[in-house]
Amino acid sequence: MRLMTFNLRFANPADGPNEWEFRKDLVVEVIGQHLPDLLGTQEGTVPQLHYLEEHLAGYLPLTAHRRVDPTCQYPTIFYRGDRFEVEESREFWLSETPQVHRSLSWGSAFPRMVTYGRFREKGRAASFYFINTHLDHISAAARREGARMIREFFLPLKLPMILAGDFNEPPDDPVYRELIRAGSPLQDTWRQVHEAGQEATTQHGFDGRPRGSRIDWILTAPPFVVRRAAIVTDNRERRYPSDHFPYQAEVEY
Predict the structure, then answer these.
(1) How far apart are CA 45 and CA 15, in angstroms?
(2) C-alpha to C-alpha distances, 158 to 86, 120, 179, 221, nearest whole angstrom
(3) What whole-number distance in Å separates Cα of residue 213 and Cα of residue 10?
(4) What is the structure's pLDDT at 163?
(5) Angle ∠(8,73,98) on CA atoms, nearest 5
(6) Residue 132 CB partners (closer than 8 Å, separation 6+)
(7) Degrees, nearest 5: CA angle 32-71-108
(8) Could you give the percent of the chain with pLDDT greater than 70?
């Protein structure tokens, strides 16, 4: 099963030649080249998400549960409709009032959300959660508390799970330690298949030159076994689909 997390970069006119209108076809092209079975996107505005829904052949958006607000940037799940049944889909805000629309806490610069679905692959009995989020880029406290909320909500459910997103922190920082800790079944797909010390970067400035660290992750819990994990650096004559490299992993279960 192929997984991908992809920060789209929101539609910002200040990006000039890298604004959404000039790269949206490339986003679709890159996804189509790698064909993830489950895709988690971040920063998508409503028009961006509508464009992907219309142009990603074979994919369905997990949005039936959503209260659509044109002021929001949504973490969103797309899935292969021919491969999965959806048993449940929901989302909540990463705040002290998670059911209050656009609520934020702990100094978060923006409202942050986690969205998830319980999926079952057609022809198989087992179901699992695919979870997608985007933690705050300013407040370390908001990131840490958001990670704690995710851990405390999902781990007691005792189902296999995949957690993807832009966590806005490097591995081994507080968010990572909140999720990958003693007693947690979650594992880092990258470190499952790469040697210790062999790290990567998922950010760049639309120019393909890596900067920062690996802040986009895919974490899995058993029975998922990681077979491959890679940073996607696809481009068209040095034009890139986003200021983040998509990150993909292949798992078996």
Answers:
(1) 15
(2) 18, 15, 15, 10
(3) 20
(4) 98
(5) 130
(6) 5, 40, 41, 42, 75, 76, 77, 114, 115, 116, 164, 165
(7) 95
(8) 100
How confident is the model over 229-248, as pLDDT tens digits? 999 999 999 999 999 999 99
Amino acid symbol at 37: D
CB atoms within 10 A of CB 61: 19
The answer to whether the beta carbons of residues 179 and 188 sit under 8 Å apart is: no
Rounded (10°) angle between helices 46-55 and 24-34? 50
Q: Name the pairing type of β-strands 161-166 and 210-211.
A: unpaired
Strand partners, 217: 165
Q: Which two tokens stand for residue 95?
A: 């705040």
Six token digits for residue 45: 């505005």
3-state DSSP percent of the chain in helix, strand and coil, to 5: 25, 35, 45
Please tell me the distance from the alpha carbon of residue 175 to that of residue 146, in angstroms, as a whole number: 9
CA gap 111, 94 in Å, rounded: 7
* Distance (Å) of CA 144 to CA 30, 117, 163: 32, 23, 15
Identify the helix (H) or strand (E) that includes residue 48. helix 46-55
Count of positions (residues) in the chain: 253
Rounded-to-integer distance, Cα 106 and Cα 144, Å: 9
pLDDT per residue as tens digits for the range 142-163: 999 999 999 999 999 999 999 9
Closest CA to 189 of 160, 216, 209, 218: 218
